[in-house]
Amino acid sequence: MIQLRTAGYKALDNLRSRGEFPPQWSSPTELETITNNFIERFLAERLDASRELGPGFLMPEMIDRAIRTREIENMDAASTDGTEKLEWIRALDRMNLMTQSYDHQVSLLLPIIGELRQGRAPVRILELASGSGGLAFALAGQAAKSGIDIVVTASDIVQETVSEGNRIAADRQLPVSFRNLNAFDYEGVEKGSVDMVVISQSMHHFSPGQLALMIAGAKAIGASAFVGIDGYRSLLLVGGVPLVASMQGIGAFTMDGLTSARKFYSELELGIIADVATRETGHRVECSWPLTLLQVKLNKYDR
Fold first, then answer.
1. For residue 282, what are the domain limits?
2. In terms of domains, do 191 and 286 share one?
3. Residue 302 domain-assigned?
4. For residue 71, what are the CA distances in angstroms to 23, 24, 76, 158, 178?
């Protein structure tokens, strides 16, 4: 109901016809600012388009605006220390295991990895904002069972989760390593060392401009694909995510579930962000309930 495709496409066509889309940029700083501003411009144009289309389109638009928020999750608050963040990340890991979300995400990623797989070279995957690596471990484990050769580098800006991930990786003896990394600048990542960049269940934590920086940065380091997985923007998940999160018995984590569900991006918003970041179109954005998958093809895979 709150994907708002008809009004969204009408708004985007209006902006394109007036020469406002795609906006141009020449530096990372410009990219972040221009993407943030354009998404705001798009949402304003979509409101006008909904009004023109009539009450049946305006009502969902107003519901979307009532739900939408810029609040930050407790997990991202400056007052939350690394130990608390690690506790909530463990809660998210348990929730994903309970709902079999990791299995679902791995089933979405393996076909994309298969497209990149050539010869005997392992597919090198960099995961951004990985927490303590629940998805990285699930992916490495299933790839090994399927005979697919991959190497996963999981990264996060919280040192406690990086340390936890490296400890678990040593215990499980899987081809997964962890490093501290700012997802916006890929500092220290050697060009040509990564085939695919992945971010899972975290896109809503970042502004449109920050997501654009991640995509453009992935292209700059020579990755062939950027893949984002997140919750599907839906009224059902606005109620469902905090309900499932509440089973962990952590009040702040439950509230984060509500905040996150209100912040999930629509498919069209993610497609716009990818278009602006790459200056190209034709990206794959689709629903695999209850998730949204974004696949951005970048540089040609030639290993």
1. 77-297
2. yes
3. no
4. 27, 29, 10, 20, 29
